[in-house]
Amino acid sequence: MAQLTCEHLWLGYEGRPVLEDLSFSVQAGDYLCIVGENGSGKTTLMRTILGLQKPMRGNIRFGDGLREGGIGYLPQQTNVQKDFPATVRKVVLSGCQARLKNRPFYSRADKKRAEENMNKMGIGAFAKHCFRELSGGQQQRVLLARALCATDKLLFLDEPVSGLDPNVTAEMYALIRSLNREGVTILMISHDLASAVKDASHILAVGESVFFGTKEGWLAEKGGERL
Ligand SMILES: Nc1ncnc2c1ncn2[C@@H]1O[C@H](COP(=O)(O)OP(=O)(O)OP(=O)(O)O)[C@@H](O)[C@H]1O
User: Could you tell me the keywords of this UniProt record (predicted)?
Assistant: First the structure.
């Protein structure tokens, strides 16, 4: 059973479609890279899968232990987020918010989870530092730890390496790879087609040419022409 199934999705704004009749599915452990030109609808698709906006038509089904709202999400970095005046621990802990339900405070289990994820992402030493004082790469690790507090099943990453220098980019990809090898399903929006093809198991291309399938299928179809 798939973790995520999108069937004949039509997405758009005010009755005008951006994406038409899109169908694909994601199995546990997949690494799906979503590629497409600027304005092709990648962010719209992500927002729809996260439940932040409704499709015009079609269905999204969750399965294999994944439920709606159970997706860890790493947003595209904005300048506002970069200046966030909170400690690293607070930012990571905020990933547990969905678990709070009606409790006003984080539980001991939430705090332990945040601690573990900070250590896992190699930012434990920065717990008391202010988020905005960290480098771009460290900030992305903090946001990954935050996303992991929401779930260890499926992470949705929106251009996780944009603005990072090549060394930090390579580190970030390695971190994402290792999470995927541990069994975390990865959905990643990317402009970096070469890296996408290296790490991904599946490719979803939206925009002028639509494709969904395995990386091998994508390479066979494209014959390397777009890389
Ligand atoms: N809130 C909105 N209201 C109306 N139209 C919107 C809204 N948000 C996005 N759009 C339009 O929908 C289309 C798809 O936008 P979207 O942000 O999903 O593309 P994208 O593939 O994520 O682009 P990029 O690569 O630049 O981030 C664009 O034409 C955009 O102008």
Answer: ATP-binding, Nucleotide-binding
- pLDDT at residue 221, as a whole number: 85
Q: Tokens 């709202």 correspond to what residue?
A: 69
175 and 121 Cβ atoms separated by less than 8 Å: yes
**Residue nearest atom 31 of ligand 1, based on CA coordinates:** 39
Report yes or no: 71 and 154 within 8 Å, Cβ to Cβ: yes
What does the pLDDT look like over 76-88, one tens digit per residue? Answer: 877 666 677 899 9
Write down the mean pLDDT value for the chain.
Answer: 90
Contacts of 150 (CB under 8 A, 6+ apart): 70, 71, 72, 73, 95, 96, 97, 98
Best of 42, 158, 159, 192 for a ligand 1 pocket test (most atoms within 8 Å of beta carbon):
42
Radius of gyration of the CA atoms of the chain, in A? 18
